[in-house]
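Re-running Protoheme IX farnesyltransferase to confirm reproducibility after the cluster update. Everything else is unchanged from the original entry.
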Amino acid sequence: MTATQGASIRHAGQGGDHTPQRTARSVIRAYVALTKPRIIELLLITTIPTMFLAAGGFPSWWLIVATLVGGYLAAGGANTLNMYLDRDIDAKMKRTRNRPLVTGEISPRAALVFGIALSIGSTLWLGLLVNWMSAALALGAILLYVVFYTMILKRRTSQNIVWGGVAGCMPVLIGWSAVTGTVSWTAVLLFLVIFFWTPPHYWPLAEKFSQDYADAGVPMLPVVATRTSVAGQMIMHTFLMIAASLAIIPLGETGWVYGVSAVAVGAWFAFLVIRYAVRVRRGLSGKKLGPMTVFHGSITYLTLLFVALAIDPFVTL
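Result of re-run:
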């Protein structure tokens, strides 16, 4: 029983009407949930180190704050519109059936208005307070996620997360352009790191919730392909990710801290993915297969890689 339901029952027992009481805090919490803050945290983790590298040190605090606020608003707007469009399948999945649009805490119309407002607001915020290059990239990320991924790819192809993941790569370009006003080859390679990282990050989660996706009619790769095929593609994307991370080194904008870290954490994550593939070939399943170990490991990998990227400009031999 939720707190709102409990308040409603107590009120009804006292002879009042039966309308559930909503507090300002619960409404705010529901709107924040629409933005998917836990996903945004991961996106912002990649933005700040990229800004440090682009600046060769600390950019101004105001620029960091303005970029992060704009990035949060943009990602929040895209995530809200994603929930608006996906509310039918969210209601069919155990993992998502408690989202505000499914429970009725927020109406579809209110969510649509909120998502559009955040999207427009983020573009104007970045354009006026950072630069219009960053604003254009943020708007592009919103359109990629809402239109390209949610509306076109997600329900039609098993490669949805591969190409739809492009939107999640945009924060590094936004962070770099916020500092320099341009996009360099280093930023492009960081983009590719996240692009190739996305499948081995998301497919283990889709494996765990494959029945959910099947019930909702979403053709995630683990739903429509064999585990062996999925594991093979995870290995391929992992090695392409590591190659992209190492290709940054010869460009000369990073030092030994990033170089050593990229090799070490790349080898560690490759081990996790290969071990997962071996378990698949042995026919293991459930906890013995351990898809969530790879999922959580992917988050640790990306965090450690970008922490090293953030530290690197401040350490010299």
